[in-house]
Target: Pyrimidine dimer DNA glycosylase
Amino acid sequence: MRLWSPHPRYLDRQALVACWREALLAQAVLAGRTVGYRNHPQLVRFRTRPDPLTAVGMFLTGVADEADARGYRFDRARIDVPGRPDGSIDVTSGQLDAEWRHLMAKLEKRTPEQHARLEDVRTPDPHPLFVVVPGGIVDWERAR
Model:
């Protein structure tokens, strides 16, 4: 499960679709509709919110907004608690940078033309749900 901190506009088609599906899975876990993935570390950022379903709903809305911009049709009716992403969750600069490097490595192999378009981006914008704060890679990140 990878719920990307960089803005969804940087994701290639495969990553955008995977992010949507994985965020829907995260929503199902947080809503208690599935027993799998309950302890997945990426869920920490949502579980620590006063209303985890609203937080993951805002994340999904941000992904769906990017899908709309590309002409894709993600089913927003699948979002339990939709809401506008509002920069209400912190992401550390170190975490954003680590995810950016991870994404760029994937793009270099899978979508070289997109990698080339993004090569000059040094500090990516975060997903609209996140606000960047100083810090290193977070404890829940497995790919350290």
Q: What stands out?
A: The mean pLDDT is 94. The chain has one domain: 8-133. Helices lie at 13-30, 44-47, 52-69, 93-110, 112-118. The longest strand covers residues 89-92.
